[in-house]
């Protein structure tokens, strides 16, 4: 990563620590040498970042970071916090970490009058539930294919455990209360379909990008769902 990105990432890592972190810990998280870490901390401190360190204890980022306050009112703050905590409960490891990082960034620049809404929200996301079925294929495989607009060959089993092989155009991941799905165009059915990720036993990129723009395809899928509420988020059954 670039030096600027590394410095900003270091600030974010420190912002997410509630206790001092050692140089070895920080260097490990950033995948850099301790020598580089010491140099980056010195540079950030020279720029005014309130980083304090003590030998044998570690580094901590204290309040007073030179960033403008984020002007959100109490309702806006609670809406964001509720959404991020919902993601933390129902997202995978990647999204849960991203939600925690985002919340730490917001907390660091939130205006004082909105801080109470962050610490003591009036809305809660509810219980975590019973967990999701195990996936044979990591969600990152689907996430990367969606971002690359790459066609995926998948081995799929429907609700009756009937296996099939599909070539799909992955459009989005859906996180429901009990299952996770992938929204896609299915070349076998020549139609939009949703597939439960826990029923996909194998997936690999076909080596070809699907045509058109993902945003346009997703918009068409949304319109189809509006016309067919009964089929909303229903995993493929045929």
Concise overview:
This protein is of the alpha+beta class and 238 residues long. It has 8 helices and 7 strands.
Describe the 3D structure.
Residues 6-59 form the Helix-turn-helix type domain. InterPro entries: CBASS_pafABC_assoc_protein, HTH_11, WH-like_DNA-bd_sf, WH_DNA-bd_sf, WYL_dom. This is Transcriptional regulator. This protein has 238 residues and is an alpha+beta fold. The protein folds into three domains: 3-61, Winged helix-like DNA-binding domain superfamily/Winged helix DNA-binding domain (Arc Repressor Mutant, subunit A, Orthogonal Bundle), CATH 1.10.10.10; 74-119, no CATH class; 139-231. It has eight helices and seven strands; from the N terminus they run αααββααααβββββα. It has a five-stranded antiparallel β-sheet with strand order 6-5-4-3-7. A hairpin with a 5-residue loop joins strand 3 and strand 4. Helix 2 (23-30) crosses helix 3.
Reading side by side through the largest sheet, how are the strands ordered? 6-5-4-3-7
**Which assembly state applies to the chains in this document?**
single chain
Morphology call: globular
**Could you give a short account of the major beta sheet?**
5 strands, antiparallel
What's the total count of β strands? 7
**Helical amount:** 40-55%
What is the average of the pLDDT values? 86
Structure class: alpha+beta
Number of domains: 3
Ends distance? 45 Å
Radius of gyration: 22 Å
Percentage of residues in DSSP E strands: 15-25%
């Amino acid at each position: 990563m670039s030096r600027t990105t590394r410095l900003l990432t270091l600030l974010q890592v420190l912002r997410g620590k509630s206790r001092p972190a050692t140089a070895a810990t920080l260097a490990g998280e950033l995948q850099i040498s301790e020598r580089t870490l010491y140099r980056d901390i010195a540079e950030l401190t020279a720029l005014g970042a309130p980083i304090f360190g003590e030998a044998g204890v570690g580094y901590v980022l204290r309040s007073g970071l030179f960033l403008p306050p984020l002007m959100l009112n109490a309702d806006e703050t609670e809406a964001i916090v509720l959404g991020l905590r919902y993601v933390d409960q129902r997202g995978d490891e990647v999204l849960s970490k991203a939600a925690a990082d985002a919340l730490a960034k917001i907390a660091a620049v939130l205006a004082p009058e909105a801080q109470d809404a962050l610490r003591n929200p009036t809305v809660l996301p509810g219980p975590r539930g019973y967990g999701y079925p195990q996936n044979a294929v990591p969600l990152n495989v689907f996430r990367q294919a969606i971002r690359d607009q790459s066609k995926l060959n998948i081995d799929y089993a429907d609700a009756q455990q009937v296996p099939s092989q599909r070539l799909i155009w992955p459009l989005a991941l859906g996180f429901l209360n009990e299952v996770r799905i992938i929204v896609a165009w299915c070349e076998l059915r020549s139609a939009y379909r949703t597939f439960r990720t826990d029923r996909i036993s194998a997936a690999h990129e076909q080596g070809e990008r699907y045509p058109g723009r993902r945003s346009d395809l997703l918009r068409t899928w949304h319109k189809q769902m509006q016309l067919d509420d009964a089929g909303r988020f229903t995993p493929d059954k045929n």
